[in-house]
Amino acid sequence: MSISGVTRTGTEDPVVRVALLGCGTVGSQVIRLLREHGDDWAARSGARLDLVGVAVRDTSVPRDPWVPPELLTTDASALIDRADIVVELIGGIEPARGLVLQALRGGRTVVTGNKALLAAHGPELHAAVEAGDADLYYEAAVAGAIPVVYGLRESLAGDNIVTVAGIVNGTTNYILDEMATRGLSFEQALQQAQALGYAEADPTADVDGHDAAAKAAILASLAFHTRVSVDDVPVAGIRGISAEEVSAAAGAGQVVKLLAVARRTTGGVSVRVHPALLPDTHPLAAVRGAFNAVVVEAESAGRLMFYGQGAGGTPTASAVLSDVVAAAGHAIRGGHAPRESAYTQLPLLGPEETPARTQVQLRLVDRPGSLAAVAGVYGEEGVSIESVHQQRSDDGSARVVITSHIATEASLARTVERLVTESRVQEVISVTHVEGE
Amino acid sequence: MSISGVTRTGTEDPVVRVALLGCGTVGSQVIRLLREHGDDWAARSGARLDLVGVAVRDTSVPRDPWVPPELLTTDASALIDRADIVVELIGGIEPARGLVLQALRGGRTVVTGNKALLAAHGPELHAAVEAGDADLYYEAAVAGAIPVVYGLRESLAGDNIVTVAGIVNGTTNYILDEMATRGLSFEQALQQAQALGYAEADPTADVDGHDAAAKAAILASLAFHTRVSVDDVPVAGIRGISAEEVSAAAGAGQVVKLLAVARRTTGGVSVRVHPALLPDTHPLAAVRGAFNAVVVEAESAGRLMFYGQGAGGTPTASAVLSDVVAAAGHAIRGGHAPRESAYTQLPLLGPEETPARTQVQLRLVDRPGSLAAVAGVYGEEGVSIESVHQQRSDDGSARVVITSHIATEASLARTVERLVTESRVQEVISVTHVEGE
């Protein structure tokens, strides 16, 4: 933001004009916090934050009592032209994309929580930042109040990150936690999450992993100084997870979590979202309910974890306000948001190069040689086996749990394809990734 | 740092001159990382980082092989005058203080990991920053690689922090962890920590809590936008913790941790360092060995936790390098370290106003009325009791554990003073703070 855009009124603090696009749960909390703590923001940034308008689709919808009706407008584009800082909380691609591009190209500062937009159109947004000599902040786009965007974008600039693994979707973590602690089925836990407002009426974006994939793309781009789009991220959600699988994991000292995992290897970067088994001693295993956490492994720093509330109106508004205060401070005292850092241009690894481990549960014909046949399939696909646990079932079949060493996604997939057609395999009950030491 | 201080050489990246003061464990790692990953730092900051000298006390001491002997000098003051960024890793007050003040007053950027200097002379350093229009970064001063200084100084600027509670000394956490998990006495665990290099030959600064107190002062200053000196922080260390106390805690579902705790109340700020009992479900209870973690409770964000390695050459060097890369980026692209934010000028609470809870273990004369007498002391001092657990001992006395509700430090101290002289109390075995829900 150009300091020339700042209005100075006599001996008072200079004024920075803030426009809000969208007035849902988060936007309403941003308005409340702007109004309740104005003196704090002024003392910290050197500027008085003046909310000049709130763009909404329908001005007649009932709002929280602190939302000033006279500031509501349906003309977002005209509002942008009256602002120094544009806070975009509309979500989704359009009209958010067009409005954010307008603001950036016009040299304005944009603060957004829009993970879908960033993960699908990041390069276009960063090009608009350059074109407009503008600034783009997006702490609220990943993991709500947890300052992990700041962490990766700024405070770990002097280290080389090896892995980022996170629980970045509270809805799915709540569902998996309820399944683990109360023995619910996926459907039961989902209904409960919907009743409590943790899950949307259409839960697709959460339970199928698309929300986590967008965040994974953003985290990987920041961590590895490269470009990762949400389209580059293979996704598996949690619909297929059964109560039995969760309870078997608990019996084996493990938990099932939906993880966003990004790794840097010598060959490039792999970014994926999938349910995974973690040992219950892993720091992410203790992340309960709707909380989020991100574990970063860096060459010098070793393991770091950032933990907190990943969603909700007030926590997400905290991240938005922090970006707004930082932006206002930069406007007054000089400085900018970091520009896109994508200098490594690392290749994205395909399944033949992506390292992975799985745990496969099978039901085998209980005859001599069945296990040898299965082990033979693993061997022929070049997958080493770490452990095999076999139990006799009531129906005379044998239930076998096979955990692999690290192999590639492709060889593990081929192994499962062959197991499905192997005559001594009655059923492939589940295939789950394994993460953590 | 003024951009005019940057040397531009033709079409190459501009050069930022870095001087290192001190070449111990951390300093040596900083040199290694500067040399091994120069291209990364240049790509991220826009500047080539040129190490122009390393000030040491004695140039003849053997060094790691990557330390260039030709860069060693004993004239730190002259070296400073040749640098844009001065990295101070001498530690302690003098000569570090004089050299840092020289650099700041000369308009140079200082990156320091010197918690003792910051906690004792913060206002003087910040005044020198203003006088020289300089920049001061100190991520490495608190909790090593964990970006909690960044978190409090920048990424939570849009929230109001209520509590900061942290395990910020790895030595004492290692000792307490060994006492808890292996039943060692304090002396045994300390000797082991010394043998492994986790504790110094003179362990005073760690085990008596002074290192943690300096960090507590820095964290509280940042969290509450006020000034807190290490002299304002009451300290109790871990020398008095017995193996019995640690094992009794474990039996009650608790752990003993040395905590730095800073709280904002309506009346002001309290900052303290003391051993405390935490329920084993508290996120800090799971912090093992020499790891550090800081829990921040903020009005909007709720509970956040930052976790990682709090000490060691390489993790601390990660924090130093990140500050250096950020500072170089600011030199090239504009921007500054945040200036001191001390606008709240909150009063520091004395013991009569500081909220606290304790757990007291007593041995009582096993006669009717003993417990009533003890409870009477609590009542007369205005301290409510949350729970009482009584056990008969083999020697005919009764062992009683009394946990209070929240009272004040002063009333809890008066209660203990009176218990010591109460005729039915044979012994006050231990008095420990209680933190967490």
Report the principal-axis shape of chain A. elongated
Count of alpha/pi helices of chain A: 14
Return the average pLDDT of chain A rounded to an integer.
94
CATH superfamily (homologous) name of the largest domain in chain A: NAD(P)-binding Rossmann-like Domain
Radius of gyration of chain A: 24 Å
Q: Structural class of the helix and strand makeup of chain A? A: alpha/beta
User: Which protein chains make the most extensive interface, counting residues with beta carbons within 8 Å of the other chain's beta carbons?
Assistant: A-B, 60 and 60 residues
CATH topology of the largest domain in chain A: Rossmann fold
Family (chains A, B): Belongs to the homoserine dehydrogenase family.
Function (chains A, B): Catalyzes the conversion of L-aspartate-beta-semialdehyde (L-Asa) to L-homoserine (L-Hse), the third step in the biosynthesis of threonine and methionine from aspartate.
EC number (chains A, B): 1.1.1.3
Organism (chains A, B): Georgenia deserti
Q: Can you describe this structure?
A:
2 copies of one chain form a homodimer. With 437 residues, chain A is α/β, with parallel strands linked by helices. Chain A folds into 3 domains: 3-144 and 313-333, 3-Layer(aba) Sandwich (Rossmann fold); 149-309, Dihydrodipicolinate Reductase, domain 2, CATH 3.30.360.10; 355-434, 2-Layer Sandwich (Alpha-Beta Plaits), CATH 3.30.70. Chain A is built from 14 helices and 17 strands. The first copy, chain A, has helices at residues 25-36, 38-45, 76-80, 96-105, 115-132, 148-155, 170-182, 186-195, 204-207, 210-224, 243-251, 313-333, 370-380, 409-421, and strands at 15-21, 48-55, 72-73, 85-88, 109-112, 135-137, 161-167, 254-264, 269-279, 291-298, 302-309, 355-356, 358-364, 385-392, 398-404, 407-408, 425-434. Chain A has a 9-stranded mixed β-sheet with strand order 11-10-7-8-9-17-13-15-14, sandwiched between helices. In chain A, strands 3-2-1-4-5-6 form a 6-stranded parallel β-sheet, with helices on both faces. In chain A, helix 7 packs across helix 8. The radius of gyration of chain A is 24 Å and the shape is elongated.
